Amino acid sequence: VFRRLSRDFASIFAKREILATVSHSQPFANAVAKGMEHYRTLLILATLAYLGGLFHAVMALTKRTWHDSRWHVFPMVIGLALSTTFLYLRGQSVGQCPMKSLSDILVFISWSIVLLYFLVGGANRVSLLGLFTAPLVAALQILALALPNSFPDYPAKGKIIPLVELHVAVALIA
Asked: How far apart are CA 149 and CA 52, in angstroms?
């Protein structure tokens, strides 16, 4: 898996450099994403990480030995990092904030749930919150991957207004 990911990232970055020298008017990711969907692998790995966090939590609860453990937080951190990378690459591929298709919205909402888990759970020491966060996020991401025509290309957009993009993102997080 790691060899494939490193090979995928190497090919993405190699094509990015080639495309950057060929055309500066078109974002690199729009051209790269037409035939490549390697960022879906990141979403699948993030979903598996969240399922790993769920597995550890369920095992600890069945043994009645629940306590704060890095073995529960570690898969959630890995999942958050992979989800963040997925959202970044997806945004680069469509040339805007990825929130126009149902699958993109589901992934963004799951990312914001995990982000809030770390903000609320870490501040209030509610580590059991991860037991409920992990299956919800995994289910949302599985649904996003299973939808027909998931992650379509967006039509070309004119000038991007950052405040509008920020407003939509904050509204989804809320």
From this structure: 27
